Amino acid sequence: MDDFEILNEPTGTFSIFDRSTELPVTVDGKTFTGLKRHEVPLALLAAIATVRLGDELVLPSLSVLSGCRTDPDGGQ
What we know:
The protein is of the alpha+beta class and about 80 residues long. It has 1 helix and 7 strands; from the N terminus they run E-E-E-E-E-H-E-E. The strands form 3 sheets. It has a 3-stranded antiparallel β-sheet with strand order 1-2-3, covered by helices on one side. It has a two-stranded antiparallel ribbon with strand order 4-5.
């Protein structure tokens, strides 16, 4: 996680920057700027998951979690 910096922008949104390049992180064509607070954890995990060690991902893909819900009743 030391590779990335989360900035609280003056607009009240958040951005994730790559410390080595000092540029906003981009994953799958989405640049992680202007994020709402609740979007930051998943965006950060996506950024971390793209860090590669040779041809292997350092962390496994989180795609299996994409259908998970915290409230099984859908908030009803």
